[in-house]
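The material for today's practical consists of a large collection of protein records. There is nothing in a record beyond a sequence line and a structure line. As an example, a complete record with its sequence and its structure tokens follows:
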Amino acid sequence: MAPYSFKTLDVRGPAENGVVEVALNRPDKLNAMNNQFWRDVRDCFRLFDRDSGVRVVILHQGQCRLFSAGLDIDPSESAGLIEPNDVNDPGRKALSLEESIRLPQESLSAIELCRKPVLVVVDGACIGGAVDLICACDIRYCTSRSYFCIKEVEVGLAADVGTLQRLPKIVGNDAIVRELAYTARKMPSQEALHLGLVASVQDDLAASLAHARTIAVTIASHSPLAILGTKVSLNFSRDRTVQEGLDHVRQMNSAYLQSPDVPTAMISQLKKQRATFAKL
């Protein structure tokens, strides 16, 4: 299905091992998120989900000096969000705004719904909508100079693209989430590590990317069917009871256990050899 071509994303891969890298590609705008960006992210990750050659995705900031400044506040870049249409009827104006908000929500949810693991590397500022974005990823890494800021209250709105829904489940500390969301203060990298928002903190971007690439290669070496099933089960179980999660994974594995990946993996473990798995 490759190559991939998008205006606001630079996609490299997938490599032979199934790892693909995606760089945010608006460095002159501090990787601010405009309507084109939302469409590109949505379409890109929906394609990754269907591409049998993709096993793991690494997302990073590309050539920008920070991860992302969040929403692009230029009205010409975020039409419908910054300046609603000139319809006088409040009901119709609200309906139009709702559709404008739906696009970025669907965009970032496409990352979460992509059944391939998504690793994200942050270096520097991660502000507003960028926090929404990383919360939709599977594993987050950052550098020591990074910080995270739920900025929305400072521009007069409640975060509406996923942070308020996903972050409490990621860090498990309701009080801190509320403090961050109500004050818009900066959360430094070590606090993010302590809370569990990020898996590790490295000295610089090169080291953080190298670490993420090592993890991605390890993930990609396992059965792609097993990894896909693991992500699907984790996401399903997060929002449901333990029993519902058990029922779901039992039904799923009733099909997946019939795959040749299972005996292939077991034999490779016994022989202490690296297994080779077919594409999805």
About this structure: The chain is about 45% helix and 15% strand. The longest strand covers residues 19-24. The chain has a mean pLDDT of 92. Strands lie at 9-12, 19-24, 56-60, 118-122, 125-127, 139-143, 147-149, 186-188, 200-202.
